[in-house]
Amino acid sequence: MPIDTGSEEWRNARLEDWTEVFLLQFFDQNPDCAFTVKEIAERLAEETPEVFPQTIRGDESLQISYIAAGLDRMDWKSQVEMRTIEKEGMVESYYSKKEGASYPMAQIEDEFPRRLDSLEEKLEDEGEGLEDRVDSLEYRVYELENDW
Q: What is the superkingdom listed in this entry's lineage (predicted)?
């Protein structure tokens, strides 16, 4: 069921990506290892199934896709490192946690809209206050004109 973006529920919702939080925890618990998307999805499904939305729990292919999307976002931010390794004639992508700063463009793309949202809310609040002040001043001017 859709949620109104003007509702309290939406405004009070968390901005964190829980998938990233769980994936970072997973990599922190396995610092010297790299994993395939399938291996990560299987381990998370066993150890912390709450990482997956209720609607895809139990569906392995959707869980793998969900984790792959999360890893892709994290790769864009340079939080994980992906390397392609050839084993027995097959090519497989492996992921591990990447140390260091995030890619600057990814940070801008991720953080800038949030800052604008916050600024927009402040301006709306101040705008409402200004409207009240203008109304009050107009009333005072009206009173002064009628008193003369």
A: Archaea
